[in-house]
Design goal:
This protein is an alpha+beta fold. β1 and β2 form a beta hairpin. Strands 2-1-5-4-3 form a 5-stranded antiparallel β-sheet, sandwiched between helices. About 40% of the residues are buried. The protein has 2 domains: about 170 residues, 2-Layer Sandwich (Beta-Lactamase); about 70 residues. It contains 10 helices and 5 strands.
Length: about 250
């Protein structure tokens, strides 16, 4: 792909994401779209996004694959890794060869290698003098991200920040309620994924895909669909029936 062609793809992606911000959107769905865009635009194979709560504890908000989700969660459990360092310092982290950082993050490097990742990069999410989280970028081969890719990654991290803050001015009083709202929505979506995994006998990734497909088809926010599935008994049967039909079509 030519440089001009790549620049066009980046601009189209950013415009598409910003267009979503100007409409009625679901924060969990948009953050997942954003991580997917990372793998399409950058020289990485996977991406994940961590968001801090009001006590500075990081939580997983989005990931492009099951193994990325598992690695991000392992990073939080082991309390070591590039996204944690990025969040702590507010500065980007770029590691071309994970094996070179085995002494720095022994448990994380072992887990990342087992998951077949060879390089990793992280860019911070910042607003109002605060670091809100980190966008992790995982490569399957050894290599640096060039300055242009790092700039695109940081731009997407800024879009993620705006996604969470929405129309509020970037002050601490405005930021913290949006953080709580986003984290609450993610918890409900995770509960819905677990419910479907048990009810339909599908994987967590498949359950998430079914939720996203159903929400789009019925013009629902992903988090609203999840709330109905978990909390509202009346529409639950119809929703489960629809999701079961979708699962059967995909087999």
């Amino acid at each position: 792909m030519t440089q001009s062609g790549r620049e066009r793809r980046v601009l189209e992606a950013v415009v598409s994401l910003v267009d979503s911000l100007l409409d009625d959107y679901d924060v969990v769905e948009l953050l997942n779209q954003l991580t997917e865009r990372c793998t399409q635009l950058l020289d990485v194979s996977s991406a994940g996004l961590l968001l801090a709560d009001t006590r500075s504890r990081l939580h997983l908000m989005a990931a492009t694959s099951g193994k990325t989700r598992d690695l991000e969660l392992f990073q939080l459990q082991s309390e070591q890794g590039p996204c944690l360092d990025c969040y702590a310092t507010g500065a980007p982290v770029s590691v071309a060869d994970l094996h070179a950082e085995a002494a720095r993050w022994p448990q994380f490097v072992a887990a990342a290698t087992e998951a077949e990742f060879a390089s990793v990069h992280a860019v911070p999410m910042r607003a109002a003098g605060m670091v809100l989280g980190a966008l992790g970028l995982f490569g399957s081969t050894v290599g640096e991200l060039n300055p242009e890719d790092l700039l695109v990654g940081q731009t997407l991290a800024h879009v993620a920040t705006v996604t969470i803050l929405q129309e509020h001015a970037p002050t601490q009083d405005a930021v913290l309620p949006r953080l709580r709202e986003a984290l609450t929505s993610q918890v409900v979506v995770e509960q819905a994924k677990g419910f479907l995994r048990a009810r339909l006998g599908v994987s967590t990734d498949a359950a998430f895909g079914l939720l996203r497909t159903y929400a789009r088809a019925h013009d629902l926010h992903l988090s609203e669909l999840a709330r109905r599935l978990i909390s509202d008994r009346e529409p639950r049967a119809a929703i489960v029936a629809g999701l079961s039909e979708l699962a059967a079509q995909q087999r």
